[in-house]
Design goal:
Length: about 170
């Protein structure tokens, strides 16, 4: 990454954007619907995708998801479900690679003593096996947290649809 050529202020600004991306339910919803395994989560993934796209993204998310495809009209990019899911997943991955490893580990709830051994290290400093393990665990946790957060809304939506159907 070009992080080595950045000032500390630029690196911190990039980290703030990364943190915001990782906390962004629009991005995590799209990424969840891409990386979640249907054999584990079934139709929940489609429900999360539909629930996510039923709202408009904030300006920053819009710029990250849509503008690259819209600005590169000669590439033949079609902004569709697969494009959005793939872009969101790439943004999440890039965001993870921007943060210090100990911050990622602590965010997942790893024992602080274990996380401390990775203090001041970036993902680029790790072996492919370590990167893969961290990324895989993070993404699996993200999928499960996203499903956990969205289930009550999905249940309520089903109940409201049933009530509407029964009162017509």
């Amino acid at each position: 990454m070009a992080e080595n050529n950045q000032t500390e202020e630029q690196r911190e600004e990039a980290r703030q954007v990364a943190r915001a991306n990782l906390d962004n339910s629009y991005l995590t919803g799209l990424a969840t619907s891409k990386i979640g395994k249907p054999e584990n989560y079934g139709r929940l993934l489609g429900g999360i995708y539909k629930q996510t796209i039923s709202t408009a993204p904030d300006q920053e998310t819009y710029e990250q998801l849509f503008l690259p495809g819209l600005n590169d009209s000669e590439s033949g990019i079609t902004i569709n479900e697969n494009y959005l899911k793939t872009q969101a997943t790439a943004i999440i991955q890039e965001s993870l690679f921007t943060l210090p490893v100990d911050e990622i580990l602590e965010g997942m709830g790893i024992n602080p003593e274990v996380a401390k051994t990775y203090s001041e290290r970036s993902m680029e400093d790790l072996s492919d096996e370590e990167k893969g393990s961290i990324f895989s665990t993070y993404m699996t946790n993200m999928v499960e947290e996203e499903i956990e957060q969205r289930l009550p809304e999905m249940r309520e939506s089903r109940i409201n649809a049933l009530e509407k159907a029964l009162t017509q």
